[in-house]
Design a protein that fits this description.
The termini are close together. The chain is elongated, with a radius of gyration of 18 Å. Helix 3 packs antiparallel against helix 4. With 139 residues, it is mainly α. The chain has one domain. The longest helix is centred in the C-terminal third of the chain and has 27 residues. It has four helices and two strands. It has a two-stranded antiparallel ribbon. It comes from Streptomyces kaempferi.
């Protein structure tokens, strides 16, 4: 049995909702820590600690899984990626070296790949082990 085309308004709402959630999660986990730590040997680290990034990823798993399991594929993938990209750009754009765009590109590609994988897994789980894009053969 084939399903009809996806409704564009709920897809758009899911994109905007996930983008907003991603921006808020970035601000909550990474937005407040803006200083680099100087080690005793003179090297600097930061500004983020590993636990902050892990917290961000774990926080975003729930809304991405929720959207993907309800077939809001564009929201799960594009909304989250757009939100994280905008947050990274705004957070890092004052970098004087000009290399912040490398980091923003890495955030964009990484979030796109990870959310796509999570979406495939959530969609397959929702369909009983089959990815949602497949049509079952007639019986």
């Amino acid at each position: 049995m084939r399903e009809g085309p996806l409704k564009p308004v709920p897809q758009l709402v899911s994109i905007l909702l996930l983008a907003g959630v991603s921006l808020a999660a970035w601000a909550a986990w990474l937005g407040w820590d803006q200083h680099r730590d100087v080690q005793p040997d003179g090297t600097t680290t930061g500004p983020y600690e590993a636990w902050q990034v892990i917290g961000l990823v774990l926080t975003l798993l729930a809304p991405v899984y929720w959207a993907a399991s309800r077939r809001y594929i564009a929201g799960a993938v594009l909304g989250t990626t757009a939100g994280l990209t905008v947050a990274a750009y705004c957070d890092w754009s004052d970098d004087s070296s000009g290399l912040f765009m490398v980091g923003v590109g890495s955030v964009t590609m990484g979030s796109l790949v990870v959310t796509a994988v999570i979406t495939v897994i959530a969609s397959a789980k929702r369909q009983g082990g089959r990815p949602s894009g497949r049509v079952s053969p007639p019986r």
